[in-house]
Design brief:
- The protein has 98 residues and is an alpha+beta fold.
- It has 2 domains: 34 residues; 60 residues, Membrane-bound Lytic Murein Transglycosylase D, Chain A, CATH 3.10.350.10.
- Helices cover 50% and strands 12% of the residues.
- It has 3 helices and 2 strands.
- It has a two-stranded antiparallel sheet.
């Protein structure tokens, strides 16, 4: 293939590059934006279990709305670096919220 009009070719390439940059900037920015997760701190009281805490957050916390209790327990264990579901009185737990 031979280029017969260099100016037209250069303009076409520049136009394609500008379109790619425009699409990358506006579409990429909107799909990658998300809200930061905030955390509330609770302290475990006597009689509290991870199941009770998860069940309460399933109802009152919009972050966990319509999620299974087992999923919430697993998520709380991961966030708080718990190896199992055993918790102690006065233990600090982080609970995600929106």
């Amino acid at each position: 293939m031979r280029i017969t009009n260099k100016n037209k070719f250069i303009r076409s390439i520049l136009l394609i590059l500008v379109m790619i940059l425009f699409i990358t900037f506006f579409i990429g920015k909107s799909t990658l934006s998300h809200k930061e997760i905030e955390y509330k701190t609770i302290y475990v009281s006597q009689g509290d279990t991870l199941w009770n805490i998860a069940k309460a957050n399933q109802i009152s916390n919009s972050y966990y709305k319509n999620k299974d209790v087992r999923y919430i327990i697993s998520d709380l264990m991961k966030i708080n670096n718990l190896e199992n579901s055993n918790i102690n009185i006065n233990q600090k737990l982080l609970i995600p919220c929106i």
